[in-house]
UniProtKB/TrEMBL annotation:
Keyword terms, alphabetized: Cell wall biogenesis/degradation, Hydrolase
SUPFAM superfamilies: N-acetylmuramoyl-L-alanine amidase-like (SSF55846)
Protein name (record): N-acetylmuramoyl-L-alanine amidase
Hydrolase listed as a keyword: yes
């Protein structure tokens, strides 16, 4: 069973760890206000370790300088429930790809690959400011998948117009819970990775790196929701 971590902030931090037998162990951890502020994202949403098989990543040797945002779903195979987590996890297995984090519609954060390993999420592409990264951005980046669906035009390569019309309107785009969790996760990543600059040059969409073949996170993603 996946391990769920829920941490409540008091004057000290109480860590509630749900074990596989569903027993709850309470541990008191001393933490300064500065530490609490730096790690606040951990306490706002459920964080789930749901690691992909080790062959879906490799050892990291380069410095992390970028974060790439994606969307993922299973809309082409399950229009009634495009965000079934188990089905989406199996898509990573089937297509032999990966990302470091995935954020579901409720804002819960899933760690799929540890940051000290390279995930296979970017593929081929280029960055104008970093020509030396051509087709190598995996080596220098953290990948974050949000459960989301783009416009009909953005989804045309993976599903028919008829399938798109079957989708419930609330499944299209992204949720405010996702934006909140994304901002908290980004703040934590920035705090631990000083080489990632807090700007739109170093936080990018997949569609900016590979515009000829990728459309995510797409035009429905609200970049103005991101806090730098």
């Amino acid at each position: 069973m996946r391990n769920f971590y829920i941490i409540t902030l008091l004057f000290s931090v109480t860590s509630l760890i749900a074990c596989s037998n569903q027993e709850v162990v309470e541990v008191q951890i001393e933490a300064s206000p500065a530490t609490i502020a730096a790690e606040v994202w951990e306490y706002q949403a459920q964080v789930v370790d749901w690691f992909l098989p080790v062959e879906h990543s490799k050892e990291r040797v380069e410095e992390i300088t970028h974060i790439m945002l994606h969307f993922t779903n299973n809309a082409s195979r399950n229009t009634a429930n495009p965000y079934d987590l188990d089905e989406i996890y199996q898509l990573f297995i089937e297509y032999e790809v990966s990302a470091h984090y995935m954020i579901d519609r409720n804002g819960d954060v899933y760690m799929l690959v540890p940051e000290d390993r390279v995930a296979f999420h970017a593929g081929q592409g280029t960055l104008e400011a970093y020509p030396e990264y051509e087709n190598q951005l995996n080596e220098y980046s953290i990948g974050i998948e949000l459960l989301g669906i783009g416009t009909k035009e953005e989804m045309v390569s993976i599903m028919t117009d008829e399938q798109y019309e079957q989708l419930s309107p609330e499944t299209i785009g992204f949720t405010m819970s996702q934006y909140r969790s994304l901002n908290e996760l980004l703040a934590d990543i920035y705090q631990r990775n000083s080489e990632i600059k807090r700007d739109r040059i170093h936080l990018i969409g997949h569609d900016e790196y590979a515009p000829e073949r990728k459309f995510d996170p797409g035009s429905l993603f609200e970049w103005e929701q991101i806090q730098f």
